Amino acid sequence: MGEGPAVRPSAAITPMQQMLASGTGAVLTSLFVTPLDVVKIRLQAQQTPLYQGTDIKLLRKCFLYCNGLMDHVYVCQNMSSCSSWYKTPTHFSGTVDAFVKITRNEGLRSLWSGLPPTLVMAVPATVIYFTCYDQLRDFLSYGMGYQGDHIPLIAGGLARLGAVSVISPLELVRTMMQSRKLQYSELMVCIRSAVAQDGWLSLWRGWGPTVLRDVPFSALYWFNYELVKAQLCERYRAPPTSFTISFTAGAVSGAIAAILTLPFDVVKTRRQIQLGEMQALGVSVKKPSSTWNMMRNIWIDMGYRGLFAGFLPRVIKVAPACAVMISTYEFGKTFFQERNLNQARCGL
């Protein structure tokens, strides 16, 4: 009772510095993961080519792109508008073969095709998400006085909910611009038309499936991250600021969260592609299939294997992405903390 109030872990840095640290982590994570997903899309493209039928009719096609931080629907209309992503496909026998042939035939830069437009979405979403998590965790622990392992779980879930809610309309707008080749001057007219036809909630179409996958993932991720990090620090007598500890804890917690939320990821992927194709075709669906109905249909058609499809690729991509992101973020926070401390000492 006689002790003074606890000091917040992130009190030594400003929210702006937290945002800079998380933004840097987002860029580095995107640089690391983008080649993996460009290869995945090219492999997917050769399995489902754009040209179908005897009349060689060019169809619009949607691909799901993930840069390790968030997912995007990419609408490919024709060979010219998506040339950087979807050139005339060379036949690839597998992932390694695709890496080698793309690098040799198209140059190393092709592995980062489509990176700039996705960074425009990924960096703000990640900045909101990580900054909100730290602020919420500290507020619950030190502002409200709550203690326990459930604090990271609650803060992680709420932070992701906020980030998804803010970014969701922007993602729909981006998909709309891609699918219809809109100029910025035409964008507001298109948005007003969509709102007049389907209401303001239409801007958050696809929000539900995203929340069902991302919020549980984030809650589980932060819960396990803080737990694993504390155990590793205790076992190896390492400081909480250790880069190796943060990297390992991020990879482990990311893998666990990815496995436990995989059924929601499968449904979310199908739903995003479905919504992207509807948007590309200009089709307005008042009552699209619900998440639970899609999950039930997958279970009926393919059993539990269908709900856990893509288990290995998801874990392989998510675990290192989480490790790179969180370790970079923690390193950035430590850098700013030491910088601020040194400036405070010099000012004395």
From TrEMBL:
It is found in: Mitochondrion inner membrane. Pfam families: Mito_carr. Keywords: 2Fe-2S, Heme biosynthesis, Iron, Iron-sulfur, Membrane, Metal-binding, Mitochondrion, Mitochondrion inner membrane, Repeat, Transmembrane, Transmembrane helix, Transport. It is a multi-pass membrane protein. GO terms for biological process: heme biosynthetic process; mitochondrial transmembrane transport. Solcar repeats lie at residues 13-139, 147-231, 241-335. GO terms for cellular component: mitochondrial inner membrane. It catalyses: glutathione(in) = glutathione(out). The chain crosses the membrane at residues 111-131, 151-173, 243-264. GO terms for molecular function: 2 iron, 2 sulfur cluster binding; metal ion binding. The keyword Transmembrane applies. Belongs to the mitochondrial carrier (TC 2.A.29) family. This is Mitochondrial glutathione transporter SLC25A39. It comes from Sinocyclocheilus grahami (Dianchi golden-line fish).
